[in-house]
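Two proteins were folded this term; both appear here.
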Amino acid sequence: MPASSTDPRTWSTHKDAAASSAGVGLGFVLSDEDDIVCVDLDHCLNPLTGQLAPWASAIVRDAGTTYVEVSPSGDGLHIWGYATIRQGRRIRRPDGTAVEIYGTGRYIAMTGRRHGSSPSILADLSAVVSKFTA
């Protein structure tokens, strides 16, 4: 059955979820069980050229060596790492784009489309999160 982002009884392992045809695809549930966060950068990537907007490039650089993937839209990025944030935030940029930061109670669709040469490890994103939530 499809999972609920707030009901751990509906969650499963990656292996089981990948074998299932329920729901709309694979994703990760952010919860209070760990300090994994996702920084979601909307409309920052040209899907034809792979060119990253300068504002997003700075955030990716500040995130350091951590897993970054192209979002399902094809024109955004999900930056994954560790930090403490209990309430999601959506920060609207002056140009209309947005940065969203989530740490709990949220399902994030995953594509597995790694951005550039990002590694398959998670880094501490506390400094990046603090910049946006201060």
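Next, the second protein.
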Amino acid sequence: MTATHDLATPRLAAAPPAASDLLRSAFRRHAAGVAVITAHGTRPTGFTATSLTSVAAEPPLLSFGVGAGSSSWPVLADAEHIGVHILGEHQQELAATFARSGADRFAPPTRWRTGPHGVPVLEGVLAWLVCRVVARIPAGDHRVVLGEVLFGDPDGAGRPLLYHQGRFGALRD
């Protein structure tokens, strides 16, 4: 008799500490774009993400990972809609604010407004999207969230903010 399991909730063995350190070390060398994910529950919430990925054009889907133990997860776990904001190189402090634990991320100097479906929309970003959450997939100590793009504005000015070797940076020509 062979064992089977639900593909939606794969059973993963814990990686040995050396493998976890290897993954972290390897991905420090991987430059990633920086985004802020927002949602609204009893109050606005948000966090900095470097795991944002375009998934499909039809339907227009994106994904990102979020730690199941993060302060943002309880709101994201219930949110029907989320905001995705692509940050510019001029927004290192905004990225740091949304990455900082315990910070009031929506207090000044953060500039934001309520957007479609009540989602907090950050101002001055390179692009913003409002997405309908279509799936939340367990993945180790994280959840992968899939969102379907509904609204947005891709026309902000500037160049993208990057994350590399544990620091925020900019593209060089």
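The first strand starts at residue 32 and ends at 33. The helical segments are 17-28, 73-78, 92-99. These notes refer to the second protein only.
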